[in-house]
């Protein structure tokens, strides 16, 4: 490949968020990568690269894996992990697959080939909330909590894990903006990239080298308004919970029940749990596009909760040919403190 433009594609429907302007390097106030073709990638707290459309940075090219690499912020440092078939190179050295490698300012990263398209780590500052211009010639706007002044009549205010647009003009109502939302500022379109943590996890993460390494348990209140997901391996466990992610966890509950029902009906493992995306969306009372978004966000939360090596959340929550399923037999559902149904080993 002769140009990084052939490898990367920006899309408003996912979180690629590329910027091909040329602001001074000193203007960047959070972790960012610069490609050989001049594209900037503002890194999220957990940032995925791959051919899968739900990846934060969508790669194109036959040599790229669905989940090729991840870059994440942990203990005040950036790390990169290879998740691919064809490899990742850090400063011209191929890194060991599935193991974290420290990523520092000025480091060079190459994907799928040592001599292929590469990135330079612009800086290794911590991730932050940022408004990214959809125009190529405008710099990003970095947000400082709790208040960031954008222009004379517009401020952004952070409260209760969300950003609010506050206008000086009393005739304009304040409104909340969420991760991925676009707003107009001075006749330019900007997209919010928020790095807030919406869930809680225990300190020691479970590790999955195969899907069989993980056991899932859903604790569901009697009225099904409070759902908690516990994930464990043989040594560690994590929990995903919080009022802001109940819609994603309810989607998972629906998939778990379908998997359990199919198992009871005697379906083979490869046919167990599949449900049509439109059918699932009707059950959830939302549009199919919104179901895809919830699925993507749930995968992201699970990735942050589990140390995946050799497998990924995309294999646990599968989406294929308009159908979706929870791909595990090790799932237990407890409703109102009563064990309702279980599969596999608990």
UniProtKB/TrEMBL annotation:
Organism: Marinomonas primoryensis
Record's protein name: FHA domain-containing protein
Gene3D superfamilies linked to this entry: 2.60.200.20
FHA domain residues: 47-95
InterPro entries for this protein: FHA_dom, SMAD_FHA_dom_sf
CDD domains: FHA
